[in-house]
Amino acid sequence: MAKDVKPTRKNLMAIEDRIELSERGHDTLEQKRDGLIMEFMDILEQAQDVRSELDANYETAQETLNMARAMEGDVAVRGAAAALKEHPEITTQSKNIMGVVVPQIESSRVKKSLDQRGYGLLGSSARIDEAADAYEELLETIILAAEVETAMKKMLTEIETTKRRVNALEFKLLPDLNENKEYIEQKLEEQEREEIFRLKKIKNKKEKEAAEAEAEAEAEEATATASADD
Amino acid sequence: MSSAGGSNPEYVTARVRARKSALYGDEEYRKLVRMGPSEIARFMEESDYEVEINALGARHSGVDLIEYALNRNLARQFDDLLEWAGGRLYDLIARYLRKFDAWNVKTVIRGLYSDADREDVEDDLIRAGEFDDAVVDSLLSAPNIEEVVDRLSGTIFGADLDAAYEDYEDTNVLVPLENAVDRTYYGHLLDELVVDEATAQYRAFLEAEIDFRNARNALRLAQSGADIDPAAYYIDGGTLFTASGLASLSQNRDELVAAIRESQYGDDLSAALDELENAESLIRFERALDVALLEYTNGLGHVFPLSITPIASYILAKEREVDNIRAIARGREAGLAEDQIQQELVIL
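Structure tokens for the assembled complex are given below, as produced in the milestone run.
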């Protein structure tokens, strides 16, 4: 608040420095925000593609599973599923997109060949293979969707934060600093005017006193001259 | 009964004929495809499945009730066949029904592998094979897979499972054990089969079963593109492929399809092979194989009415009935359209 600031030249210089820094920060943050939005639009497009792929894969997986349960029996499908204990392995790393740390999910052993699925080939059917294939495909898409959508959410949060910072600088900090600067400048100008006025006053007073002293001296001299003539 | 004693095809075929006439026909299937799961269960309760629906009704509901009732009824019907048959006929029937022993062994092993509850594993068994309740219960009470392999040492599965157990221990994957069980079953289908005029066609049916299994597996291997040795999955005994021939055909799907087309099954499977050439999925082809096998056995029943063939024809028809009812119930549960369900049914 302007009233809290001492209107000194030192403060004015400090505020001018802060304004300069804030303006630079504002420009940088604006650039970062625009850059993030552009990156976000790319990721959004990718996320939409992955999401629709996920929906389609889910439909297919559910359909093949339903058909396998119908034609082979639920017992056979559950049995085939129970023949495998090993779970897919998922490892996460991170990458940096314009300062935002987003996950990079690597999966292994999701897609399996016929001899890695646990159930025997001789006593099973293509329906179970196709259901397993479809679910492996679905799982891979889920992992990709998790990566892309997490990145998208993190980007969105960062864009929001950056936008708030830009707005805070643009609509709060910089106006406040400018207001303070103006206040100090006005106060300093006022102080200067007061000083000039005071100096003028003193000067006038001194001039007046000098004139009076001179007049007095002249009067005394005149009196002295007159008494000498007498 | 058992393989000891005299063969009694007259008695068994007479009983089987009555059972076959009680199987669902077109009319019943037309009604079933319009019903929901609970209506199907009710319909079954009013037919041959009454005992099973009533016995399982308190523990299961919906489509699960239907599926468990179907499996239990299948087991009861096939158990009766083994009960009635004696001598050589028993041996011929048991050869085919041992596939349920294989199923039960695999189910118990899978249950132990995945730490499933004993009750859940027991529910999934189909006691239609040669193993009696004592053998099945002893397998169910085994504390680990090694013990199951030990307890099967006196059966046809013992030697192969024992040999595959080392592989299982190395890889901790059930594939070697499951393949050993299935390979034993198929390996014993034609084992020491004495062929005369009446059993020649039964042998042809069993050979077709092996050929079709080899064809399915070869196509699945070709489809998967995985680096798997096809010879490891070859089942000996069929007439269509040799181990080396199948190994080279598995590398090229087109050549494999051409080989099947030129075989004795070519005419029966022609439409399915056309479809297979134009589509990626093997499902329609597998269904065509099932239909071809069923049509083949259906014809066999009329040629030698007092032999194993009408019994084999009934076994396949009963299996198909169970598959059809389950497909209808699961299809309705999944919201499939009537047309779509009807397409999947195999009705002769």
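Chain B touches chain A through 54 residues (CB under 8 Å). The radius of gyration of chain B is 20 Å. Further analysis is deferred to the final report.
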